[in-house]
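May I ask for an example protein's residues together with how it folds?

___
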Amino acid sequence: MELLFPFIGYRNDELYVEECAVKDIGNSVGTPVYIYSKAAFEYWFKEFDGAFDEVERITAFAVKSCSNLAILRLLSELGAGADTVSAGEIFRTITAGIPSEKIVFAGVGKREDEMEYALSCGILMFNVESEDELDVLNSVAEKLGKVARIALRVNPDVDPKTHPYISTGLKTSKFGVDIERAYDIYLKAKNLKFVEPVGVHFHIGSQITDVSPFDEAAGKVADLVKVLRDKGIEIEYFDAGGGLGINYKPDEEVPSAKSLAEKIVPYVKELGCKLITEPGRRISGNSGILLTKLLYVKRNDRKTFYIVDAGMNDCMRPSLYNAYHHIVPVVRGDSKEIVDIVGPVCETGDVFAFDRKIGKCKKGDYLAILSAGAYGFTMASNYNSRLRPAEVLVFEDRFSIIRDRDSFGDLIKGEKFFNR
């Protein structure tokens, strides 16, 4: 097989995921459809988790990147924990079999009912993002007669050198608290009866392809831990977040998980902490593709458009971030042409690629949008009353539908006519 990414590539000019011909999946299930590789998920999880095997750790998968129950069950069987940002994600992870003691709850706007649910589930800890949230959590825990274990999310003010929309550790970010303020908030938490500070958390951004910012951030946070311990606050968990980037182009070089570990592990060892990491995209991104069908080829004096049946509602990243996804014909030939690949949604921004050189296709051909396993289906919507795609998991030469395509009934589920 001529690999594009692990377990995804061409065999005799036809695209395969593991031992399954992608064309056969499209013919059987229809399009658009998300296709994931079981072997790829296992490969990328082990690549990341294994890099930190020198320390006691929880590799908490960022559920927001890919939240299908079958995927979460697979990761649970590999020993993963979960990084969650809503009560719904906690529900998903527990349903999938991830132990509650391996679940952390992050997010800048946790509601009281979500706090109650998380406490009732016995999660490992809350990553608290503001002093107000700390006060509310203490009150909720008091009402339930429980103690909430917490880490404070601190912003080390380190530039992660990524897209501004996914840069989260600067002073201008809505996330977390300035590292200079963290000390006082930890002292306050120590004196609250229903809160127990047990960790420290930082997350500087996503799709980071230079590991040096992690070194700088971890060093600043480790210094904070030492100061806190001098004041009797025993920090047990060092939560370094996620954010390690992937290659969206097959020939693109990105840092290994081992290179990230080399930046973080020395601080964790020095502190004697347990490490928590929160990889999402790194595990799921190149474990999945979005398969779409070419509906029409539209040509004018200046442009050629490939109009496909997947839209921005199915895969938001190109429209939201102007993000690059490598796109290939499922059956490739020798000739190429330069095209805009666009979807059917009634928005000018419904574009997957501008002026992209691609193998020449005709109406009815399949195209694969690669590196779509992360923030693909999880960001999908029913905009334009479009049915969200099915999801399929490939294992060796077989595949299984792990989420049915939406039906028309799903579109109006829960809606009611107004009774005058």
User: Anything to note?
Assistant: The chain has a mean pLDDT of 95. The domain at 38-281 is CATH 3.20.20.10 (TIM Barrel). The two ends are 64 Å apart (CA to CA). The chain has two domains: 2-30+287-412, 38-281.
